[in-house]
Fold this protein.
Amino acid sequence: MPIPFSSRWREYGVPALLLALSVLTTTAIGARFMQNFLDGLPPIAEDGDLWPWPWLLAQPSRFLLGIPFSVSLLMILLSHEFGHYFACRAHKIRCTLPWVLPAPTLSGTAGAVIQIRGRIPDRHSLIDVGAYGPVVGYLVSMIVLVAGFLLSRPAVAADSPSILIHFGQPATLGIVHGFLSIFQPGLPSFSQTLPHPVLIAGWIGLFITSLNLLPGGQLDGGHILYAISPRLHRALRWVLPGALMLAGVYLWLGWILWALILLIPAMRHPRVPVDLPMGKKRTLLCALSLLIFTLSFSASPFDQNSLLHYLGFAR
């Protein structure tokens, strides 16, 4: 029996369309990053850099400047989601292909998702589905960071008032820099670097990985925590959003949005049987996920961006 067109469109057409739009939006913001890099400026030198369309439409060939950023970022996002996808396939769980969501953000996307349409049968499959995405995405982010550091150059007057966005520095940046410094002594650290757009893509990859590993709801970290202890997952249902609210007041305003997302009823974790023993393999996978979260997380991913800062109560 032939598959209806509507089903084929949902299965293949929607992901393809969203990916095409995301290629456009990530290439657009990446072009602005690259032009600023070539001009010796920080990635975002003025407010208009976050909406580069008038600048691009005046000279469409400028889109080509954004290809390195777009390819790097989409490679990270797709590797993350295909980690989930193939884990689902291995456990015979129905799911969609990855959907990369275009958006007018710093990265040109709102990240990527897959929709799990089948029931997750047991603890082992829940851990695999939750962990393989961030593990694979983190490894690809590390590769992108290495390339980004090597393509970047030392900053001049890094404390220039023209810097509108100050990026936080998760531990992975220091690890990658330390490794590269063995072979290239004198390589400037992230804070002393005029970042190439590929380096920014790697940083965004770490940021997305850490957000997905927050231990709540149906995020990757929520799946892993539920597999370890459904009781602890339930206990954090209100504690984690409360902590994120406080973090939004003092550290980064975006944590308030993530607190609200976790409070959405649809984010409640479905029941999954957890009677199977963890086993060594899944215990190591959970430990690896926790390590990745620790190394990629930054409590203040964008400095000087708290609610208190916006209200004028912080400097």
User: Anything to note?
Assistant: The two ends are 66 Å apart (CA to CA). The mean pLDDT is 92. The CA atoms of residues 220 and 248 lie 21 Å apart.
